[in-house]
Amino acid sequence: MDQATFLTGQFLLAMPGIGDTRFDHAVIAMCAHDAEGALGIGIGTTIEGLGLHAVLEQLEIDPGVAPDAPVNLGGPVEPRRGFVLHTLDWAGQDTVEVAGGAGALWGLSGTIDVLKAIAEGRGPSRWLVALGYAGWGEGQLDGEMTRHGWFNVAATPDLLYDIATDARWEAGFATAGIDPRLLVSEAGRA
């Protein structure tokens, strides 16, 4: 697969009938995709009953000025590991700038410094917190993209930060001019 077809900086939308209930109506912000594999953070589902304040308290961080925002279900891999997707007006030592075709789109941070900064009111201006991630080994996602399962769309800041979590899946398809209610749950055969 050549670099032009890699999905870093795009959103993956689960197709109806993807065949894995963990990804039903999933929206994945792709943070890395190359010949060695892929990593994305789920942004289409929140963890019921879990807010940012509870996460901060578990880490012994005073919530300070941080809102008690919902926490996203980032994916099934390492579900206790936290990530923050955020604007690029803040960066820590481990922040990775996720770039798409138009340049850097968002930052990905996975250490406690971003949470401390958010609690203290000196963090990124826009952010979302997730636990876990979606990961694919070498060639795995490339193979999945050739079968019925995933649809990729260009990343937009509004889909990441402004649209309600439970509306992101449908809104993602709308950016491509697709009404997901008209999609079938299996691929055709020629």
Automatic annotation (TrEMBL):
Any single Pfam family the record assigns to this protein: DUF179
GO cellular component: cytosol
UniProt similarity note: Belongs to the UPF0301 (AlgH) family.
Name of this chain's protein: UPF0301 protein EAH76_20225
Organism per entry: Sphingomonas glacialis
Lineage of origin: Bacteria, Pseudomonadati, Pseudomonadota, Alphaproteobacteria, Sphingomonadales
